[in-house]
Design brief:
Strand content: under 5%
CATH topology of the largest domain: Photosynthetic Reaction Center, subunit M, domain 1
CATH architecture of the largest domain: Up-down Bundle
Number of strands: 0
Structural class: mainly alpha
Distance between the termini: 49 Å
Order of helices and strands: HHHHHH
Radius of gyration: 20 Å
Shape: elongated
Largest sheet: none
CATH superfamily of the largest domain: Photosystem II protein D1-like
Number of helices: 6
Number of domains: 2
Length: about 180
């Protein structure tokens, strides 16, 4: 349902009143965007932090105008990712493996939760969430850097070093294992 909602919203959703000031922002392809500039626009600032399911709106047009598809897609995405984390844990346990794949997957899950859930809660509205599109993602990163100077934060520096270090060690491990394979 969430994937279908994302595809339909990306292609044909009407403009969303993201700032709550009756100036809608168009993010769908049918309203003149292309694959790069298209996005599922976050919920309206008028909604704030309220959960906004389809059945709470007076009409489907109101739900679309206030950015309801964004909440539907993001919440289902986070729930799906958390369930997949649990699946990895269970498979590791049942196969008698150690849980390091699950632990490794928890890092991107934590960052997605921070961007799509924790940050908007901290800002007081889901309208501050990251738009679901290419240009929207880059715009979110630029605004985030301008408002919070994240690049100079020591925990961000450690996280980036950890990601790059982890990819380096993964590449070294993979090349070592591959180079030591012997056909018998």
């Amino acid at each position: 349902a969430a994937t279908a909602c994302f595809v339909i919203a990306f292609i044909a959703a009407p403009p969303v009143d993201i700032d709550g000031i009756r100036e809608p922002v168009a993010g769908s392809l049918i309203y003149g965007n292309n694959i790069i500039s298209g996005a599922v626009v976050p919920s309206s600032n008028a909604i704030g932090l309220h959960f906004y399911p389809i059945w709470e709106a007076a009409s489907l047009d109101e739900w679309l105008y206030n950015g309801g598809p964004y909440q539907l897609v993001v919440f289902h995405f986070l729930i799906g990712c958390a369930c997949y984390l649990g699946r990895q844990w269970e498979l590791s346990y049942r196969l008698g493996m150690r849980p390091w794949i699950c632990v490794a997957y928890s890092a991107p899950l934590a960052s997605a939760t921070a961007v799509f859930l924790i940050y908007p809660i901290g800002q007081g509205s889901f309208s501050d969430g990251m738009p679901l599109g290419i240009s929207g993602t880059f715009n979110f990163m630029i605004v985030f850097q301008a408002e919070h100077n994240i690049l100079m934060h020591p925990f961000h520096m450690l996280g980036v070093a950890g990601v790059f270090g982890g990819s380096l060690f993964s590449a070294m491990h993979g090349s070592l294992v591959t180079s030591s394979l012997v056909r018998e």
